[in-house]
Amino acid sequence: MRRFTLTTLGLALAAAPAPALAQRTDDNATTSAEDAFGTSIGGEQIGIYNPNYVRGFSAAEAGNIRLDGLYIDQQASFTDRVIAGLQMRVGLSAQGYPFPAPTGIAEYELRKPGEKRLLSVSGRLGPFGAKVVELDGQLPVTDRLSLGAGYGYFSDRNHTGGSAQFRTMAAIARWEPIDGVEVTPFWSRIGIADEELPPLLLTAGDYLPPRLERVKRIGQKWAANDGQTIATGLTTTIRRGDWTLKAGAFRSIVDLDRSHTQLFLNVRPDGTADEVVIAEPGRRSASTSGEVRLSRRFADGPRLHTLHLSLKGRDRSRTYGGSREIFIGNHPLEDPVTVPEPVTSFGPQTRDTVGQWTAGIAYEGRWKDVGEISVGLQKTDYRKRVFGPGAPVITTKDGPLLLNATAAVYASPSLAFYGSYTQGLEESPVAPGHAVNRDEAPPAIRTRQFDAGVRWSITPAIRLVAGVFEVSKPFYSVDTARVFRQLGDVRHRGAEFSLSGQIAPGLTAIAGTALIDATLSGDAVDSGQLGRKPLASFGRLSTAVLDYRPPFAPAVSVDLVVESTSDRVASTDGKLVIPARAIASIGGRYRFKLGKAPATLRVQIANVGNKFGWANGPSGIYLYNLPRRLTATLTTDLG
Length: 639
Description:
2% of the residues lie in helices and 59% in strands. The protein has a 22-stranded antiparallel barrel. Strands 2-1-5-6-3-4 form a six-stranded mixed beta sheet. A two-stranded antiparallel sheet has the order 30-31. The chain is mainly beta. Strand 26 (484-504) and strand 27 (507-521) form a beta hairpin. It has three helices and 36 strands. The protein has one domain (24-333, 356-638): TonB-dependent receptor, beta-barrel domain (Maltoporin, Chain A), CATH 2.40.170. The radius of gyration is 24 Å and the shape is globular.
């Protein structure tokens, strides 16, 4: 199940669109992937990017989420009960969007019920003793109406010894009242009980924390979260000749009744630290959003012209704050201290609201065997209001014109060159848990992106994509007083490569690399408060995946995943780094029959070498990586 809480702040680096509720026994992210830039299906994710990391930034934080191609202001993570897969769109793969966005696009696909009865049952053991049961079913009612529903129970365990209980429920329908019209309503809920998130560590100087024993709880058992998330909405597609109308309206809610952040501050080389728990009187974030897009195609011999008109908007409100710091004590990290949960009196909370409307017009032109171009212009009206306790209302407004333009030239049937320029008004990051203004969200920021590259179909089954990019944004982080604010600007320049396809009978390979040069500028850099390299930045991220299904034994497949990163910056002067590391995982699938029902047993050992390493965030927080772990999943499809 995808993690939906933002508290981890993207420290861990961290699917191809599927047919209507395909059999889950066929789920395989590697064989479904279009490229190495990021694919998720069936709970497995591969590729160099994910919604929380694209070219060094977070597409989720920026608000660049799409559901069935439509804009959604996502607050609650989606559950696999309603989502078939995820595909990261960058470079050439993002050019199919009439209104692309800097920082890339994370495109989710709804799990639409199909035309036959199906009940998929899945059970998982691991990692770390977790137990999971998932049920997903579909039922055709008529030849035009199909219903789907699902339930999941997760007795979860994380790599820092914490536990949690999640219950996921969902319902979805696919209705075609007449030819050319499809309506898909959906509803999903995730219930959260006793969620113990990994503790966050902050050192007292420019050194890495001491190595810790993993899978050992070092925080307070009562420092947990309870609540729920809800995602619901409706998508509609109407096709009439050369006209297409797509529309979606969505409601996304995170509602925590109890919220805690477990911190270890001033971690020293001897392993001692100041244990602090931040307790909150709950928090809530809710957004209503959607998009209406009308498209008209014009055929002109070998040329195809398409005009798009779009209107999208959102109305979001958040309630947060009123927290209290609970000092547990100074003690060795490896010698946990347990104290009873204190009675806490909370302070007043802050509320903020965001209203935004964006109208756009875009043109796409495609010339067979020659190339394609697109240009789009959006006018957005943004307004944010912050209602702080005992403070005057703070209002922020912005209304930029946003331009995007792309072009691709087909040098041959197998070779294409592309380039693009994109402007955006994106959400800024939210203040992390250890900031004194935790959870505060600055106003939206103006961003821009250039990219260019080449796509080469080496063979009909093997494709290479290579590109360069530059993304520029304002830079937010925690200053020396632990206040989260803008400290300058950041620019990411780099190159990315993807090689994907079937390189031999039964052997699928996905390989990708991102090379990123992150550079800071501004007063904080000029004064020496920050270095030229942002914390947590690294120069290289690579992944390689092999999936082999022998032609002589099609019931069996084996896979290998290798992920590696270069050194990461761990101090403002850039002298302290987290060493480079590579992690390998091995797994396999066995396909068989349970009676007459197809079934798949999936087993994977991740981090085979049990390598220890640290991940850090741009605000200086540390979290150690996942150790060696075993996961076994059995899935069957009952017709």
